[in-house]
Amino acid sequence: MNTWLAVLALLAGLAGLVAGVLALRTLARLRRSVALLSRGTSGRETILEAAEKHMAASEAVRRDILELQRDLTAAHTTMRDELAGAQQDLAGQLAGERAELARTVQQLSETIGTVLRRVALVRYDAFDDLSGRLSFSLALLDDRGNGITLTSIASPSDTRLYAKSLTAGVGEHPLSPEEEQAVRAALTG
User: Fold this and answer.
1) What is this structure's pTM?
2) Which residues fall within 8 angstroms of residue 115, CB to CB, at 6 or more apart?
3) Most Cβ neighbours (<10 Å): which of 48, 82, 110, 136?
């Protein structure tokens, strides 16, 4: 039984020796890998150096992005301020043009008020022996009642024409009933 024990101990020792050799071999590989990471081979950069360069480049990109964001914010603020100024300028210009247009409309309204656009014609027979309503009174007035009356009196032998000026619907000379009728008709539309 002692021999069996000795053989078993020998086998256990041999297994331990093989395990130790394998562990040393694995350890050597790990040391080489760590050495490559820390110093590189044949002048190439190590993984740590590459990671450092990458981090530095990433930091530079981050700074550039922050700078661009600041520039964009400043540009946005400037554009917003310029747009607000342009809107104020446009609003002022529009207000000026609107005022000018209102003045023009007012002037046109005043001018249109003086146009002889109220017209009325009254035809009649001035003499009993002449028929066909050849005589007439014509009123030409503006909106204020200023204007003229033209009266044509037809007789069998001749025709006479009379003109009278009007101010606010009242003649400078007394108006005939036909002239008054024409003036009333012209003022009432």
Assistant:
1) 0.47
2) 142
3) 136
